[in-house]
Amino acid sequence: MTSPVGPSSGNLPARRRMGAVLHVIFLAATLAGVVLLAILLADVLEHGIPWLRWSFLTSFPSRFPQQAGIKAALWGTIWLIGLTALFSIPVGLGAAIYLEEYARRNWFNTLIEINIANLAGTPSIVYGMLGLSLFVRWMALGRSVLAGALTMSLLILPVTIIASRESLRAVPDSLRQAAFALGATRWQTIRAHVLPAALPGILTGLILALSRAIGETAPLIMIGALTYVAFTPSGPMDAFTALPIQIFNWASRPQREFYGLAAAGILVLLGVLLTMNAAAIWIRYRSQRNVRW
Amino acid sequence: MASSSEFGLRLAGLRQKRKGRWTERAIEVFLFLCALLSVVTTAEIIWVLARETWSFFRQVPVFSFLFGTRWTPLFQPPSFGVLPLVCGTALVVVGAALVAIPLGLGSGIFLSEYASDRLRGILKPVLEVLAGIPTVVYGYFALTFVTPLLVRLFPATQVFNAASGAVVVGVMILPMIASLCDDALRAVPQSLRHAGYALGATRFEVATHVVLPGALSGVLASFVLALSRAIGETMAVTLAAGATPKLTLNPLESIQTMTAYIVQVSLGDTPAGGIPYLTIYAVGMLLFVITMGLNLLANRILRRFHEVYE
Predict the structure, then answer these.
(1) How far away is chain B from the Cα of A278, in angstroms, using its nearest Cα?
(2) CATH number of B83-304: 1.10.645.10, 3.30.70.20, 3.90.660.10, 1.10.3720.10?
(3) B248 CA to chain A: closest CA distance, Å?
(4) Contact status, residue B215 vs residue B187, Cβ threshold 8 Å
(5) Of A91, A95, A130, the CB nearest to B44
(6) What are phi and psi of B192, to 5 degrees?
(7) Residue B94 in contact with partner chain A when CB distance is under 8 A
(8) A91–B174: do the CB atoms touch at under 8 Å?
(9) What is the mean pLDDT of each run of 10 residues along chain B (310 residues)?
(10) CB A175 within 8 A of CB A107
């Protein structure tokens, strides 16, 4: 009689040994990710710590590594992310509400869904080319922080939509039905009941989407965010540079000193990202504690 | 008099109701426009890429672009065969897959089938952090850690090489595969596992003969999505893999990927409008078509081979 499970099913000790070996292999595969993360952090810390001083945060870039800093890049990133949040949050949330609360199942809405999934997998550099043609040239915004923010907004739009939809879907239908039964309109139901219930999840998703925008480099290079900027932007039409661009610029130089600067810049960037991630996790944790459905 | 005021009140009530319906409608239209923007974005991407690619192909034959073996658009005499760039990308993607698919699938199986809830609660966030690290950081890591390591192992390694880029791109897509595989495996109902155990299978046999086949569509789709992501990856390969378009299968040599070429041109001072400048749109179009094809394929796999459980 043949076994439904495998050719070796007759010999139980051998099968158990096989299972034990594979258990170790699967564990090792999982730990590989953890170990790689540890090595990466150790590498960056080792090279970057000696360069991380207060003046590093308050100086403009320079040809001389000792005097170089990330003031312009840091302010550029703050401007960029602020404007990106301004554009992408209302639109992303609006699209998610439409798809989750209003859309009926028809071919057009299916098209929108497949389209969003495809946009989420479109390479970021393609968004850069779109931004270059659409915002920099056609809308004549130039190589400004506004053009950068609009490009970034399009880039993170699919991520914000997908994350917001998941939180909206997690709100139980009974909540909506209760509101309808009391005579609330659809929008009243959404505004007063669905959105507040989904808010923690939505915030978490938005923070993670924005943290993706902070790290993106390629689209900004495409739209020509300058690599040497010795001023901080004072308005949305100003030229700018951003942290990842500054890191790229330093890492692509042949002189070894600039590697140290790149590592220090990475530490600042990772610090910002970890803070945002921690905020997202904290919001998720708090909401899980309070809400009982 | 009384009846007229009552009539007025009712009219006002009706007006308010109509106004209420009107705002309801306006909100729905606004929300629909937000959703429509994503379709407009795709249309814009295709329009922008297609327009410039069209003017490129008016000057360079499609055939010599797709099948030419020399890519020297910035030199005299220029040659526009894209195969060396495709070859560079393929080299990086295959290398990345060799790193990421075994490790990612192994992690996915471990997280879903072996790890306790507590261990999972620790490992998942670590993978999320790994997935959240910006690509430019991976580029730096490739230059300062992976390449020196490769040089020590294989002295023939060049300073910029495909292998170093492939390794870090593999690390970059690993969390994506692990997390998507974990989701797919966990979606297989517990009753199937119990049935496997009841027939006398060991935990490993249940994992590989029952759960994995049951989740095959999700697992395969995760591979395809990760490869699509690897093809579009830009900063790490720009920093680590070099800027030498060439047809080679040697991963220790300097190559250039499609994405790295686009960055190279946009960093340089190539005048807008000339043929060398139009090349980035032709390459970008090719990149977009390939990744869109893979994304749709992944979608197809999920729908076509999806096992439906009650």
Answers:
(1) 10
(2) 1.10.3720.10
(3) 24
(4) yes
(5) A130
(6) -65, -40
(7) no
(8) no
(9) 56 58 88 92 93 90 86 81 91 95 94 90 86 91 90 87 92 93 92 92 91 92 94 91 85 90 83 80 94 92 73
(10) no
Q: How many alpha carbons fall within 13 Å on the CB side of residue A91? A: 22
A118–B42 CB contact, under 8 Å: yes
Burial B227-252 (b: 16+ CB within 10 A, else e): bbbbbbbbbbbbbbbbeebbeeeebb
Question: What is the rounded CA–CA span in Å between residue B77 and residue A200?
Answer: 59
Quick check: bond before A61 cis, omega within 30? Answer: no
**Are the beta carbons of B138 and B236 closer than 8 angstroms?**
yes
Q: What is the rounded distance in angstroms from the CA atom of residue A136 to the CA atom of residue A274?
A: 32
Prediction ipTM score: 0.87
Show the tokens assigned to B174.
């690993």
Query: Are residues B85 and B245 in contact, defined by beta-carbon separation less than 8 angstroms?
Result: yes
Of B38, B136, B228, the CB nearest to A248: B136
A235 to chain B, minimum CA–CA distance in Å? 24
The pLDDT tens digits for A222-265 are 888 766 677 778 778 788 888 999 899 888 887 778 888 899 99
Distance CA B239, CA B252 (A): 15
Neighbour-count burial for A184-221, b at 16+ CB within 10 Å, e otherwise: bebbebbeebbbebbebbbbbbbbbbbbbbbbbbbbbb
d(CA A181, CA A184): 7
Contacts of A111 in chain B (CB under 8 A): 39
**Residue in B with minimal Cα distance to A252:** B239
- pTM for this entry: 0.88
- When CB atoms are compared, the residue of B144, B178, B231 closest to A47 is B144
Contact B140 A114 (CB under 8 A): no
CA distance B153 to chain A (A): 18
